[in-house]
Amino acid sequence: MIEEFWVSILGSVAAAIVTASFVPQIIRGYRTKHLGDVSYLLMITICIGMSLWIGYGIIKQDLVIIGANISTIALNVILLVLKVKYSK
Amino acid sequence: MIEEFWVSILGSVAAAIVTASFVPQIIRGYRTKHLGDVSYLLMITICIGMSLWIGYGIIKQDLVIIGANISTIALNVILLVLKVKYSK
């Protein structure tokens, strides 16, 4: 039981770090008002893939996978909105 | 048993799509020879987080999680090398 707890902690930390990785990209884009080098396909494909991960997490009843992917999709949508805004 | 098979397929497809999402970013960077807007911290933090995901996958004995994260780290390292090269 304790071991399962630590495995969940490891997964949660991993999930939080991967999700957090998009924060500096958003901050950089927001500061420079320029996201020209970031590929639209990167963001869109990540959102599609992570939507499927959410389905996988729901079936496996793995809250870490579900939460991580919802958060990362949210950050990618923010990045996408910024890129559309700055490319006008 | 069949259900477990389809869940693995779903996870594998999700993993493949997320991993593949970095391919258009690499192609774009390689073509334009410019990755200035892509944050170093994005790539480095993804690699750190995904290394922990590999640990999670090993403990959970989930080959989908292990394979997906190894592939995504590999692509991020390629992206990182390109960015260092083009920023010189």
Question: Could you explain the architecture of this structure?
Answer:
The structure is a homodimer of 88-residue chains. The first copy, chain A, is an all-alpha fold. Chain A is 84% helix and 0% strand. Chain A contains four helices and no strands. In chain A, 33% of the residues are buried. Chains A and B meet through α1, α2 and α3 of A and α1, α2 and α3 of B.
Mean pLDDT across residues of chain A: 91
Largest interface: chains, residues each: A-B, 40 and 40 residues
The secondary-structure element order of chain A is: HHHH
Helical content class of chain A: over 70%
CATH topological fold name of chain A: Monooxygenase
Sequence stretches where pLDDT stays below 50 over 5 or more residues of chain A? none
Number of strands of chain A: 0
Q: Which term fits the overall shape of chain A?
A: elongated
Name of the CATH class of chain A: Mainly Alpha
- CA-to-CA gap between the ends of chain A? 53 Å
Structural class of chain A: mainly alpha
Alpha carbon gyration radius of chain A: 15 Å
Q: Give the total of domains of chain A.
A: 1
Give the quaternary arrangement of the chains. Answer: homodimer
Strand content of chain A: under 5%
Major beta-sheet overview of chain A: none
List the total number of helices of chain A: 4
The CATH architecture of chain A: Up-down Bundle
